[in-house]
Amino acid sequence: MIRFVAVILFVLFTSASHAPATVVANEFCGLQNKSWQAGESILYHVYYTLAGIYVYGGDATFSVRNEQLNNKPVYHIIGEGKTNSFFDGLFKVRDKYESYVDTSSMQPYKFVRNVLEGDYKKFETVTFNHTANTATSQTGTYKVPNCVQDVLSAIYYARNIDFNRYQPNTQIPFTMFIDDKSYNLYVRYLGKEKIKTKYGRFNAIKFKPLLIEGTIFKGGEKMTVWVTDDANKMPVRIESPISVGSVKVDMMGYKNTRYPVTALIKAK
């Protein structure tokens, strides 16, 4: 069945385009956070296709706090998802993902995954040692490359990419650690366009992600993502086929963005 926070968290970046791509150096080292701030909160509605009709299935929320972890200042990023009352009766979902990110380097120190999906439960913690280049979970310690991200920190880190520097179809690589493995991935920038969502109409930046094959998504290049074409680079629409149909995620509300959302053309 469908995992609500994972629908957004598995925005792992590449493209469905078959045109030759320009590949640039690893952008996921050395970026500074200039796009979001502590106190930001974003609400998403998740829709699934049933008999060709999109049905509202639940909510996902993402928020950022300033905290201390081992006497170091961190951003505590939280993603939570839950089914609505109708889907609760079919397949109850209560998912929570957390990442503790260094406020200077933007590298994760700790990742927590706590999921309840029907009868399935999973609790996982991963701690990162960026000096030794290791990640430690309940099952062991694993070598990881420099500047590795977790699945949640990668999304917030990617919001700081300056897409104006790139031509459409450029690939921007990075590495992510999930389920005790490191994956070499990349963002493929597709260009800019206007997108109409259930919240309103936006000027948007568009890219396609490569999905790690699992219970929700088929591996490959199926998902499309739009983020605001302004300083916030806030995700406003995600679309993808999944194993039991298709899914659409729309931003439905936000608070305390770092900058005014100037990409919004007209709200509904």
Structure description:
It is a single chain. The protein has 268 residues and is mainly β. It has helices spanning 4-9, 85-91, 151-158; strands at 22-23, 41-50, 53-69, 72-83, 93-102, 108-117, 120-129, 134-137, 140-143, 170-178, 181-196, 200-208, 224-228, 235-242, 245-255, 264-267. The protein has one domain. Helix content is 8%, strand content 53%. It has a 16-stranded mixed beta sheet that branches. A hairpin with a 2-residue loop joins strand 14 (235-242) and strand 15. It is globular, with a radius of gyration of 18 Å. The relative contact order is 0.22.
Question: What characteristics describe this protein?
Answer:
8% helix; 3 helices
Distance between the termini: 31 Å
Instruction: Count the beta strands.
Output: 16
The string of secondary-structure elements, in order, is HEEEEHEEEEEHEEEEEEE
Using only C-alpha atoms, the radius of gyration works out to 18 Å
Largest sheet: 16 strands, mixed
Query: Mean pLDDT, rounded to whole units?
Result: 84
Whole-number total of structural domains: 1
Any low-confidence stretches, pLDDT <50, length ≥5?
1-21, 214-219
Task: Annotate the secondary structure layout.
Elements: H1 4-9, E1 22-23, E2 41-50, E3 53-69, E4 72-83, H2 85-91, E5 93-102, E6 108-117, E7 120-129, E8 134-137, E9 140-143, H3 151-158, E10 170-178, E11 181-196, E12 200-208, E13 224-228, E14 235-242, E15 245-255, E16 264-267
Parallel strand pairs: 1-10
Antiparallel strand pairs: 2-3, 2-15, 3-4, 4-5, 5-6, 6-7, 7-8, 8-9, 10-11, 11-12, 12-13, 12-16, 13-14, 14-15
